[in-house]
Design brief:
heterodimer, A: alpha+beta, 5-stranded antiparallel beta sheet, 8 helices, 5 strands, 30% helix, B: mainly alpha, Nitrile Hydratase, Chain A, two-stranded parallel sheet, 12 helices
């Protein structure tokens, strides 16, 4: 969706503010929100694409004025409510008010290291032929899906060149919608700066974007 | 504990967050703090999370996983041509060989800064970042100014970090829109011939592996130590 998360190329946010490596967290609640998000992710009640969809579904005004862990927290609350795990009434009350169904899995302390090491690889075995090869000129489609997508607005309708073929990966658009992984080819596509941003752009700028086959058309 | 009934400057419970953030209101923060505490107790009460697992998750990223991992990868690539070639060919396997693996680093690609070209990594759509080698991302990496500006004006971003690239150097920005995670291999600073991997790793900053900075020079390292 064309939400506030799709930030590439926007202006007016001011300078980037560097920060040292430590402290890692900037308020006591941040590590708790972080850990709750990971632990609930490990229950298997939703996938990473559904999490991203929940985060970017925040009302744009709120998205842009929230810190990233606040965005995570808000998305966690909506995922819990959507699945009937924690009701909005319980969140408002700050305590459990009714019985809820059990989750598929509960992450135990002793399983954390293995869970993190396993991660969530997105590549899938497939004998589907790739539609494009390294060197092909392609155009990013002018598409505006209302659901979750990973094609940034700033490249839509622009032409680039396939530079890498990453293999067949879970397709986020369907995965986020609960329509299955529908794995498809993923490519690294390079765009010239002036093609993306027009006149006056640094001619030496190149932007490399990872795009799935359904986002691309031959040019 | 309830959140949000009155947060107009009153502090309901002991909290000391107000001084941490310039951007946030103290009242706003204590409201968020209450919300998180409430959510945590609800999830524990319902048996969805194991509180001990939460502590292990936090401790892992506070103490074990961080940019010192990536610095070791870079220092080894600078010192060992075979490892360098492996890293450039199959970063996931090469990085795994040093023990760094898993979540948010399942599919790694190393991109190399050269005399001709500088690389910078961003995630314009969210906060994708190579956790096993860099840890959790800094606030600026996840925030609008960086995500908006990096793909359009990376030299402007570098200026925000006090970095100016030599005239004529090309710049390439990697937008992490899929599950591929990018690690910048910075240029090895001059005057480091014969340095051990441990010494070299001290030159490798987090920002140099994102591409918003360069590796420290020996003189800068000395200054930092002083």
């Amino acid at each position: 969706m064309n939400g506030a998360q799709d930030l590439g190329g926007m202006m007016g946010f001011g300078a980037v503010v560097p920060e040292p490596v430590k402290p890692l967290f900037h308020a006591d609640w941040e590590p708790r929100a972080f850990a709750l998000t990971l632990a609930m992710g490990a229950t298997g009640e939703w996938n990473i694409d559904m999490s991203r969809r929940a985060r970017e579904s925040m009302e744009p005004g709120r998205y842009l004025t929230s810190s990233y862990y606040q965005i995570w927290l808000s998305a966690l609350e909506s995922l819990l409510a959507e699945r009937g795990l924690v009701g909005p009434d319980e969140i408002a009350a700050g305590r459990s008010l009714h019985q809820s169904r059990p989750v598929k899995r509960v992450l135990a302390a002793g399983e954390v290291a293995a869970m993190l090491a396993r991660g969530g690889p997105s590549e899938r075995e497939s004998d589907m032929p790739a539609g494009f090869a390294v060197g092909d000129r392609v155009r990013a489609r002018n598409m505006h899906p209302t659901g979750h997508t990973r094609i940034p607005r700033y490249c839509r309708g622009r032409t680039g060149v396939i530079e890498a073929v990453h293999g067949v990966h879970v397709f986020p658009d369907t995965s986020a919608a609960g329509e299955g992984e529908q794995p498809t080819w993923l490519y690294g596509v390079v765009f010239d700066g002036p093609e993306l941003w027009g006149e006056g752009t640094d001619p030496s700028l190149k932007v490399r974007i990872d795009l799935w086959e359904p986002y691309l058309e031959a040019f | 504990m309830t959140g949000g009934n009155d947060h107009h400057g009153h502090h309901h419970h002991h909290d000391d967050h107000d001084h941490h953030h310039d951007n946030d209101h103290g009242s706003h923060l204590s409201q968020t703090d209450a919300r998180v505490r409430a959510l945590e107790s609800i999830l524990i009460e319902k048996g969805y999370v194991d509180p001990a697992a939460l502590d292990v998750l936090i401790e892992t990223y506070e103490t074990q996983v961080g940019p010192h991992n990536g610095a070791r990868v870079v220092a080894k690539a600078w010192s060992d041509p075979q490892f360098h070639d492996w890293l450039m060919r199959d970063a996931t396997a090469a990085i795994h060989s040093l023990g760094y693996i898993g979540r948010q680093g399942e599919h790694m690609v190393a991109v190399k800064n050269t005399e001709r070209e500088h690389n910078m990594v961003v995630c314009t759509l969210c906060s994708c970042y190579p956790w096993p080698v860099l840890g959790l991302p800094p606030v600026w990496y996840k925030s609008a100014p960086y995500r908006a500006k990096a793909v359009r004006d990376p030299r402007g971003v570098l200026a925000d970090f006090g970095v100016t690239l030599p005239e004529g150097k090309e710049i390439r920005v990697w937008d992490s829109t899929a599950e591929i995670r990018y690690l910048v291999l910075p240029e090895r600073p001059e005057g480091t011939d014969g340095w051990s991997e441990e010494e070299l790793a001290r030159l490798v900053t987090r920002d140099s592996m994102i591409g918003t900075g360069l590796a420290l020079t020996p003189a800068e390292l000395k200054e930092q130590g002083a």
